[in-house]
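Title: [Solved] Calcium-binding protein CML21 3D structure

Original question kept below for reference.
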Amino acid sequence: MGGVSGKFESPETKLEAKMVEAMQRRASKGTAIKSFNSIILKFPKIDVSLRNCRAIFEQFDEDSNGAIDPEELKNCLHKLGVCFTEEEINDLFKACDINQDMGIKFNEFIVLLCLVYLLKDNATATEAVSLIFTVCFVFEVLCFIIYPTCHCLGDGMGFSLCLSKKSKMGVPNLEATFETLVDAFVLLDKNKDGYVSKNEMVQAISESGEHSSGPIATKRFEEMDWDKNGAVSFKEFLFAFTTWVGIEDDGDDE
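Solution (posted by the thread starter after getting help):
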């Protein structure tokens, strides 16, 4: 299976623990992606899909300074009737503010959306309502922004029917993109422990037929291992991936 020698430190937060558990469960189902090269071939399509999140991001960024601060996140959730506790909002913010500069940039916002996608199928009974509501909220905002005359915002089943119709008309299929990202991580996580080690990265690239797999894998791994602890979490992988496909944190795509 690939590998890691020894054990990584336990997740530092409840959110990270949930991410690891969710990824381990997802890994048990396998991946549709066969090689690291096939991930690279998907970069252009993923890039386009993720950039379509810009409209949602701009609605959150009330002062248009290119970053969502804690108060903006709180205000937007409040205006749209999403009931989160102060602790839940703070945890969500801290998890995605990887630079710890008190501002969620566009690439960090994409990570936030993808983490919600990963966690939605791993919720306990008490967490399910909150997470499902969050997922619905995200896609309701997307629907409303692209189709401002739509009257289904917050309309439960009516919204679901509308979203289904809009998807056929070209609304970005974010779920498919997020699923591809999850699949990509599962491909790299050979021992299915919820993290990617350097050895696993070398193995994945070697299996793609790269003759210089060692140096390439080392470079890619260093780009992913944000905290330099030798273990890449799904969150760190997502941050690196946004860079790989060409999405920066300061509005370069505008």
